[in-house]
Amino acid sequence: xxxxxxKMNSQPNLGIKKLIDVAGLxxxxxxSGHIGFTLAPRLNAAGRVTHATRAVELLVTDDGDIAxxxxxxxxxxxxxxxxxxxxIHELARIDVANQGHKADYVTxxxxxxxxxxxxGIVASRLVEEFYxxxxxISIHDGVGKGSCRSxxxxxxxxxxxxxxxLLLQFGGHSAAAGFSIDANRIDELRERLTEYCKKxxxxxxxxxxxxxDAELPVDDIDVDIIDRVSALExxxxxxxxxxxxxxxxxxxxxxxxxxxxxxxxxxxxxxNGTVDAIAWNRxxxxxxxxxxxxxxxxxxxxxxxxxxxVSPQLMIQAIEPLTEEPIKLTTEGLRQMYVxxxxxxxxxxxxxxxxxxxxxxxxxxxxxxxxxxxxxxxxKELGIVEEYTSDDGQLxxxxxxxxxxLDLVTSVTFLTYSV
Length: 419
What we know:
By secondary structure, the protein is an alpha+beta fold. 40% of the residues lie in helices and 24% in strands.
């Protein structure tokens, strides 16, 4: 692997060079991380969405124009794969929400004509989000094709084996598996797996654990230490990326980023400035981590190269506040939040992120951030606003004009946190 990386950085295969160019990595030193998260997904996208032949053609061609055209095509196919993944992931999340307590022990979601090439990726995303054994099923002509991902300590193959009388076929290993099933037996499969999990999975095993290799004070993070750690590369299954932990850091700023506002950027204060951190696909952090929060964070290290400048960047694996703001809801506080949300939306649809930003900017000083943002959940339960996903994948809020008086006791969130 090390020799391959050296070759890729000195005299890469023509097709790989064109792929590096279209991925925007041409001025960077290619690492195993770039391969795993940037180049390989583009090569794999062909097999997931269209046909793997195009990826092979890229690797074997000696024609520069053909290589460039295929690289551009794979780049576009990868965007298509991401869009498919986003859409199915959102539908799966809605399915989980609608199941209520049926999804307490295992995640089993299904949909008609979900693209079978991306359901495995969606299963992995759902494990990251809910941390339960997860099965995502695509139904076609009455038959479900399922892809499974496990959690630590749970043998997915054994779980399917316990339900083999329901399945048409299955295979895999402890961490991941696949199966097919008659669509009319999916509910029965969910019930059987729920009972199976109740018996063998402990409450502690439903709590994700991040293994830390070393503690690292936030003031010690610089490019030099990244260079020293990089001597351990290349990383892979038998040599995993080192994970560090800062046990106490203060958040100087936090924001959502990306076209869909689905990634979170956190800026930590240091004794001589700041250091940036990125949490991919974690927009939820925006509701639990705030400016001034003191947190502990687990992360890997990466260089951020931008406009000729190189700086350290933390890739967040886990983050949590050392002390969490309590959620306290009052009738008067909700009235104030109602006015802010109504003025922010002006009777129209707005992105959820923009409304949340407005709330944090304009909330009264006596309301903490978590309480202010939780007001949106109350308004959703009362039907004042409705959350939906736009055509381009953004989470949106739609304002509903409601006549008459609303009763707060119909909101479960208000009853839970009212003081």
